[in-house]
Design goal:
The structure is a single chain. With about 350 residues, the protein is of the alpha/beta class. It folds into two domains: about 5-150 and about 325-360, Medium-chain alcohol dehydrogenases, catalytic domain (Quinone Oxidoreductase, Chain A, domain 1); about 170-305, 3-Layer(aba) Sandwich (Rossmann fold), CATH 3.40.50.720. It contains twelve helices and 18 strands. A hairpin with a 7-residue loop joins β1 (about 5-10) and β2 (about 15-20). This is Alcohol dehydrogenase. It comes from Biomaibacter acetigenes.
Length: about 350
């Protein structure tokens, strides 16, 4: 039987089940049997046609964990371990060229001008087809960075490592928090939950999270948040008063935007102390603009507003280590598990915010 995948053929229309021939492997390529595929908020944006990177038709899914089915030649992980058939692996979702200005001179592969991503900007219209994780199998290119993962770990728990986990790892890598910092997080979705866990790991003395879902805020507390604010129950003025009370009237040393909403940016910058840092990690697609007072909001406060665009292999490694050290906690992040052919239902669950994390299991 040929492997099947769920394919996005038209924006705003249901994904369609299609079969594809199993590809012949070129040297260094790895064919993987998918064990778990994460459904990301970015997938919803692509399904709705909001991400300008999305070609049609496409097999969605950039968060995958699977078992090696075939290898052409020798292949090793980023840690130098030999990869063999049957190994359980996770891979960096993006592939950078290694030779452009950003890769070779600035050493920032996340900004690579030739970077491509499984399930985001590679069409399945031409062979080898299987380049997304909403599928029974995915073909990894020879230049994909791979990690072995323990057999004892539930693959579904691992899937957010390569996206929300790695993106937030990138944010913290850029910000370089100091022990004792007071960190504010906007949004208790997977990005915000990873931000909470990283803030705790970096030794933050206060971790304040703002969100609109009580259950997610309670989860964030279990991950290390010291104070949770429900934005649906309090006005912006009341929220600011609470943040100032817990930061000695100064504001947060670092604030992490993990919502992708312009309104959050205006509020978040106002809650950062003078000389602090504001990290924008939630904007994976165009989602509006915000108006700031250049003097009052930025210059006079002497703040650093830092964009966070995707991640690279270093950050996937950071997120994987964090998750493996907190397995029981991160297992809570997976709220729904569905078979692969229920991918449309999975997208609807994520769009409605009824799910924290949906995982497809072929």
């Amino acid at each position: 039987m040929m492997p099947f995948a769920m394919v996005l053929e038209e924006f705003n229309k249901p994904l369609v089940l299609r079969e594809f021939p199993e590809p012949d492997l070129k040297p260094g390529e790895v064919l993987v049997k998918i064990e778990a595929a994460g459904v990301c908020g970015s997938d919803v944006h692509m399904w709705r046609g909001n991400d300008p990177r999305t070609p049609l038709p496409i097999i969605l899914g950039h968060e995958g964990v699977g078992r090696v089915k075939k290898i052409n030649g020798k292949k090793r992980t980023v840690l130098g371990e030999k990869i063999k058939e049957g190994d359980m692996i996770l891979w960096n979702r993006g592939v950078s060229c290694g030779h452009c200005y950003f890769c070779s001179v600035k050493k920032e592969p996340s900004l690579c001008t030739n970077r491509w991503v499984y399930g985001i900007n590679v069409s399945c219209g031409e062979p080898p087809h299987l380049k997304g994780c909403y599928a029974e199998e995915v073909l990894l290119s020879s230049d994909t960075d791979i990690f072995k993962v323990p057999e004892s770990v539930d693959p579904a728990v691992l899937v957010p490592v390569s996206c929300s986990g790695a993106t937030i790892a990138h944010a913290f890598d850029l910000a370089k928090p100091e022990e004792g910092d007071k960190i504010l997080i906007q949004g208790p979705g997977p990005l915000g939950i990873f931000a909470t866990a990283f803030a705790k790991a970096y030794g933050a003395s206060e971790i304040i999270i703002i969100g609109g879902t009580e259950e997610r805020l309670e989860m964030a507390k279990r991950f290390g948040a010291t104070f949770a604010i429900n934005r649906k129950k309090l006005s912006p003025e009341q929220r600011k008063e609470m943040v100032m009370e817990r930061t000695h009237g100064l504001g947060a040393d670092i604030a992490v935007e993990a919502t992708g909403q312009p309104d959050a940016v205006s509020e978040g910058i106002d809650l950062v102390r003078r000389g602090g840092k504001y990290l924008m990690a939630g904007f994976g697609d165009p989602n509006g603009t915000v108006t700031l007072d250049c003097y009052k909001d930025i210059a006079h406060k002497n703040i650093n507003i830092q964009g966070v665009w995707v991640s690279d292999t270093k950050h996937t490694h950071m997120a994987l280590k964090l998750l493996l050290n907190n397995l029981n906690l991160f297992s809570e992040l997976v709220s729904h598990r569905l078979p692969l052919d229920k991918a449309n239902e999975a997208l609807e669950l994520m769009e409605s915010k009824k799910a924290t994390k949906v995982v497809l299991t072929p």
